[in-house]
Amino acid sequence: MTRAPGLRIAGFSLIEVLIAMFVVATGILALAALLQAATRHSKMGELRATAALLAGDIADRLRANAAGARLGPAGYDLAADDFPSPPAPAPARAACTRDTPCGEADLAWADLADWTARVAVTLPKGSARIRFRAGRPPVPDTVDVWVGWADPLTLSPGRAIDRSGAECPAAWTATEPSVRCVYLQVAP
Which of 37, 120, 131, 144: CA 20 to 30 A from 187? Predict the structure, then answer.
C-alpha cells in the first residue's frame, strides 16, 4: 500500500504516551500526599479538641471547689515533672454522699483521681499538670493547667520551626520531643 504525497499519518508516539503517563502518575502521587496530610491534621485536631475539653472540665471543677483550688499541694496541685504523668491516687476516704459530705481537700482529691484517669485513657500518653499560684491584690489567685499527650503523627519533632511543645512544661519537652499541650489559666 502506498501513501499519497502530502498525507500524514496521525497518531501518538511512544514518547508522548510516556510523558502523559508521567504527568498522570505525578498528579496521583500529589493527591495521595494531600490525603495523608489531611488525615494527619484531622487526627491532630481531634486530639487537641479532646485535650481542650479535658482542660475545660478541670477548670469547671476548680471553679466549683474554689477553696480546694487554693489549698495548693493539699488540693488540686499536680506538680510532677514525669511524662507521661501517673494518674492521681484515689482518695483514701470513702465516696462523698449527702450524709457524709466531702471537705474541700477530699473533693479535690476525688476530682483529680477521676480527671487524671480520664486524661490517661483518652489521650496517647495523656499527662496532666496543675499548679496553684497565689496572687497579690489586685492580681487574683490563678491555677495553671496543662494537658499533654505524645503526638504519634509528628514529623521531625526536633526541627527548629516545630512549635509542638511551646505550651508544655520544659520537663515534658525534654522527656518527649513530640509532646503537644493545651495550657489553660483559671481564676478560681
Answer: 120
